[in-house]
Amino acid sequence: MTQPMIELRHVTQRYGTHTILKDVSLALESGKFYTLLGPSGCGKTTILRAIGGFDQVTAGDIFFDGKRVNDLPANRRNVNTVFQDYALFPNMTVAQNVAFGLTIKKMPADKRDDEVAKALKLVRLSDYGNRAISALSGGQQQRVAIARAIVMQPRVLLLDEPLSALDAKLRRAMQYELRDLQQRLGITFLFVTHDQEEALAMSDDIFVMNAGEILQSGSPVAIYNEPVNHFVADFIGESNILPGHMVADYQVSFDNRTFECVDAGIPSNEPIEIVIRPEDLTLTDLDHAKLKVTIDNQLFRGDYYEIGATDDQGHSWLIHSVRATVEGQQVGLTFQPDDLHVMRLHEREADFEARLETYEEVEGTAHDEA
Predict the structure, then answer these.
(1) Does residue 351 belong to any structural domain of this protein?
(2) How far apart, in whole angstroms, are the C-alpha atoms of residue 124 and residue 141?
(3) How far, in Å, CA of 36 to CA of 213, rounded?
(4) pLDDT value for 84
(5) 67 to 4, 16, 31, 73, 130: CA distances (angstroms)
(6) Are 150 and 185 spatial neighbours (Cβ–Cβ below 8 Å)?
(7) Mapping DSSP to helix (H, G, I), strand (E, B) and coil, where does residue 178 land?
């Protein structure tokens, strides 16, 4: 592997007696779209602030191109940040907002105007330079904030939940815009979100976080298909998670039945958890069913039905199907061996949920004071 552009090694961040980041290590390569994904208060923004130079870490080291930068101020790190509230100046025009950093750098006016024009063209706002910020939509304001960041030609762009204030349709459109912009610019994006769909759609690699730790990292496909533990499986998309045990190589047992799977190398009778995604379950007649369930409810989601059901062991099931069902009806379910994902019961941090409220409160307070 080539030397990472940015690397965190065993970074810990504490505020008073509260640990916000716990021995976090990660590496970012040049020119990729990375996402920090996790629930509110898990430490995502704290990592962003540490990389940006806004906060000093309690322990551990941060490296840019192999050089330790713990003591390097934010204005010398060649990174820029797009904040959740955009932080635009309402008394300035669009062009003046974009030019702000270049003005501080005392760039000559003619060159500054050229750079502003290029940045506005990149975000498709070429004709908006003289407009007031108050005259723009939420999506346009977000693009101005991005233009103001990229005009400084950073090697890394840090984005702290910049889509959270947008409505669902605009948010989806801006996902395409951001991904396209990152690919055209060829710079590294580090994006913070709690929205799983957003992370899966936009990222080259995702870091899944909870309670100050990185639980899993990898491509969206790998994380979705191969979650390492119960939290990741439950947090990324929707899942049916059931207790079971290995019978032998390529055989698992759950719901008092034995099924074929594609997993091997796990000792017989070892307790496991089985993950089945709702879209991998197929409705079938009772004679060809691997499982039989009774329909509890269903919601029409536009291109599929979201169906809730219960089996004869009392386990709840979530099913995504293009077929409608009837409440109270008994139906069959079938699936393929590679639709079953086996998770071993690794020891993990106890009671994530109990810690989460404290993390959210402390991290929010620390950022307000910064």
Answers:
(1) no
(2) 12
(3) 11
(4) 75
(5) 11, 29, 19, 14, 41
(6) yes
(7) helix
Query: Counting every residue, how long is the chain?
Result: 370
pLDDT at 132: 92
pLDDT recorded at residue 290: 96
Place of tokens 């349709």: 169
Q: Is the pLDDT of residue 200 over 70?
A: yes
Residue 362 and residue 219 share a domain: yes
Would you say residue 133 lies in a domain? yes
Residue reference for tokens 């890394």: 156
Residue 245 lies in a domain: yes
Q: In terms of residue numbers, what domain contains 311?
A: 230-344
- Interatomic CA distance for residues 118 and 129, integer angstroms: 11
Give the C-alpha distances (Å, rounded to integers) separating 200 from 173, 176, 223.
Answer: 15, 12, 9
| Residues 92 and 74 placed together within one structural domain of the fold | yes
Can you tell me the distance from the alpha carbon of 354 to that of 334, in angstroms, rounded to the nearest whole number?
A: 37
Residues 145 and 180 in one domain: yes
Q: Which amino acid is at 260?
A: E
Q: Are residues 170 and 281 in the same domain?
A: no
Element containing residue 276 per DSSP (H, E): strand 271-276
Question: What token pair was written down for 99?
Answer: 């030019």
Number of domains in the chain: 2
The mean pLDDT of the chain is: 88
pLDDT in tens, 209-248: 999 999 999 999 999 988 989 999 999 989 999 999 999 9
| 193: its two tokens | 């979100």
**Mean pLDDT score, 176-202:** 90
Among 20, 19, 5, smallest CA distance to 51 is for 5
Question: In this predicted structure, what is the pLDDT of residue 354?
Answer: 42
Sign, CA dihedral 81-86-91-95, equals positive
pLDDT above 80 (res 333): yes
Statement to judge: residues 81 and 202 lie in one domain: yes
Sign of CA dihedral 365, 366, 369, 370: negative
